[in-house]
Amino acid sequence: MATDAPRAADSRLRSRPFDRVVGQRPLSYWLTLLGPWIGILVFGVFMLFMRDDWLTVVNMRNILIQASVFMVLAVGMTFVITGGGIDLSVGAMTGATALTVAWLVKFTALPDVLAIFAAFGVGILMGAINGLLVTRLKMPDFIATLATWITFGGVVLVVIEGHTLFRFSDTVRFLGRYRLFEQLPMAVVVAVIVGIIGHVLMTRSRFGRYTIAIGGNRKAAVEAGIPVERYKMFHYMFMGLLAGIAGVIMLGRLNAVHGLVGQGYEIHTIAAVIIGGTALYGGVPRIWGSIGGALLLGMMANALTFLGIHYFVQYVFSGIIIVLIVLIYSLLGYRQRPEG
Amino acid sequence: MASASPLLEMTAITKRFGGVRALDEVDFAIDPGEVVALVGENGAGKSTLIKVITGIHPPEGGSIRYRGKPVEVRSRRESQQLGIEVLYQELSLVGVMNAYQNVFLGKELTKRYLGFIELLDNERMRLEAERILLEQLGMDFRGRWEPIFLMSGGQQQAIALARAIYAEASLVILDEPMASLGVEEVERTIAIIQRLRESRVAVIVISHNLEHIFAVADRLVVLRRGRKVGDVPKDRITPEEAIALMVGRLEEKIVTPGTVPAPPREEPRRGDRRSESR
Question: Scanning A137, A198, A318, B233, which has its CA 20 to 30 A from the CA of A328?
Answer without folding.
Answer: A198
